[in-house]
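Page 37, continued from 36.
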């Protein structure tokens, strides 16, 4: 059943069309050819204009939905970062508390700083380089405490402007993988070397670590599936910097090397 308002609109349209048709016929009968051509041209142009306008509105709606979808996906990817790290740190904290270690307070403080950054700053589109470096340093120090400072770690920072804005939590997956798939597969001589470089036109992150292939393969076999860290990072890079980033990785003779370069121009 057609709604009353719709019925009224249909009647108005029919009446308007009839009157306009009668007007065109009057122009034809009275040999007003120039005016007839003008009104016929307008009759053809008006529907085209409305079609273009509707098409533009539809494209705007599609673009908005696409942007909302990308934002939702980015938020989901960021929410997947570091869950098992926090659980491991809490377990470590429990052990320190049981031992009444002097490190307990330090671990609680660093963990709270990381959780605050993840929960609040992690939701933002960008953070300062200084804040991101602080987050990475806290991650390193907590892992050093967990491994009783037995890991040889070198973190080089080359930043032109510490207030420069970069996406939050972008490189933590690579660093986390260096511990999970490198440090944790060995009992001695573990090392991690990584460098974060930021310039006005470029962001680069380069990491090298060693690993035990046999232990790593055994862990992957027990899990049944691979990790999502690298896939997570690659997807975020694709969403944030399509066609403006490079991701390379290479593993050979127990040494893993990866590099990310982002073009900000």
């Amino acid at each position: 059943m057609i709604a009353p308002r719709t019925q009224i609109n249909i009647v108005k349209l029919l009446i308007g069309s009839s009157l306009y048709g009668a007007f065109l016929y009057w122009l034809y009968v009275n040999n007003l050819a120039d005016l007839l051509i003008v009104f016929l041209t307008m009759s053809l142009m008006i529907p085209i204009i409305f079609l273009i306008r509707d098409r533009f509105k539809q494209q705007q709606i599609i673009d908005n939905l696409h942007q909302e979808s990308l934002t939702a996906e980015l938020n989901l990817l960021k929410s997947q970062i570091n869950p098992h790290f926090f659980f491991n740190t809490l377990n470590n904290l429990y052990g320190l508390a049981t031992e009444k270690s002097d490190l307990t307070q330090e671990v609680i403080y660093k963990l709270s700083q990381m959780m605050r950054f993840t929960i609040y700053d992690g939701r933002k589109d960008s953070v300062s380089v200084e804040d991101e470096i602080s987050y990475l340093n806290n991650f390193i120090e907590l892992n050093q405490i967990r491994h009783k400072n037995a890991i040889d770690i070198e973190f080089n920072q080359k930043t032109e402007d510490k207030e420069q804005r970069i996406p939050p939590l972008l490189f933590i997956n690579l660093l986390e993988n260096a511990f999970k798939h490198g440090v944790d597969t060995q009992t001695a001589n573990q090392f991690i070397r990584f460098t974060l470089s930021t310039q006005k036109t470029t962001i680069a992150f380069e990491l090298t670590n060693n690993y035990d292939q046999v232990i790593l393969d055994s862990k992957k076999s027990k899990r049944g599936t691979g990790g999502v860290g690298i896939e997570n990072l690659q997807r975020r890079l694709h969403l944030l910097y399509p066609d403006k980033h490079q991701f390379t990785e290479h593993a050979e003779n127990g040494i893993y090397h990866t590099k990310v370069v982002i073009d900000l121009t």
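The first strand starts at residue 127 and ends at 128. Flag for discussion at group meeting. Residues 16 and 91 are 77 Å apart (CA to CA).
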